[in-house]
Task: structure prediction
Amino acid sequence: MRQGEKSVGMFFLTSGRLRMQRVTPDGGMVTLHVVRPGETFAEASLFADSYQCDIIAESDAAVWLYPKVDLTRRLRENPDSLWELTSGLARSLHGMRLRYELKQIRSAPERVLQYLRLRDDGTGVYHASGTLKEMATELGLTHEALYRALATLERQKRIRRNGGDLQIMSNRRNDPFQTPDSAD
Amino acid sequence: MRQGEKSVGMFFLTSGRLRMQRVTPDGGMVTLHVVRPGETFAEASLFADSYQCDIIAESDAAVWLYPKVDLTRRLRENPDSLWELTSGLARSLHGMRLRYELKQIRSAPERVLQYLRLRDDGTGVYHASGTLKEMATELGLTHEALYRALATLERQKRIRRNGGDLQIMSNRRNDPFQTPDSAD
DNA sequence: CAACGGATATGATTGTAGTCATATGAACAC
DNA sequence: GTGTTCATATGACTACAATCATATCCGTTG
Result:
């Protein structure tokens, strides 16, 4: 899909990897976003007449297309579906903010720990879905850095590992039953 | 505002700085998002009954509240306003993706250049609105790193500076008036 | 079985952004 | 005029993630 083409609708990526990029006036190339499976993209096409960027498949990829005309009609006729789209966008936005904030953390061990905390469902156990390499990519680290970070955290007894499971070790300081933690 | 409290609505920050954070089950603290002036936040509160995080004012701050009940009523009665909210979210999402992608670039000079390219309106001139320090914050760099990056880019003749203006120097390959610069 | 590829791991080295210190210039107060 | 504050700038040093190399373990395939 090319910059300036008429927008046909919104997409959902089922497999592969896409790169959204733009040619800048000075002739340079800027990557706007890398799309990974499970993501919707080009949502803005619903509100604009043409795409403002190129989309390149970095590998064989499969997408669903939500054709603009169908989708807008459906959204107009059925307010609930629009509501659903909106809440989906709000969720995505929240997710992006989380990922962004995670990247503000420079130290690899800290970043990994916060990542695990975000995924903590209360049990404190994170069962690595997929490989550590994938987790490294998601964290924006090289896999080597992730291995080292996990080793460091384990050495510091801040996490425990068995097999693919990662368990955060409690942080509570004076706890028998939890004292209010100095919150920054 | 505290984790678990009943959600009262969505906010818009006019001044100050807020930190959205969450206490994790292990007693640790995770920053979810730092809100800066001009941003809306807690959009998800429209779709949930309670806030899932604390919001702390890091300085004196002023916000507008869009009360949930009023807003939802208005959005239900007036589909156009819902449409507007949705497109706003899509735009915010796009903006976050840009910022995220920018952070993937590790080299400070490259990051700065891409940032300028994103802001290129075609003239190739970026008039620094605000200080360079603010720009550094937005780029996720220290101000020292930004000063050095700008100096480097200027030395490499990839940008030009006069006063507060930053101009990207052309990169075009087949430009008769320009030596082909190995781009990327 | 051996051979291969991939994930996991760790060691050695390097590049570079962060950190701390310091200097200059402009704006402003008194 | 002097003092204060802030943005801008640069130098010195450090920390640490990336990079490259190497090794082990495992599952698959022939």
Q: What stands out?
A: Chain B touches chain A through 60 residues (CB under 8 Å).
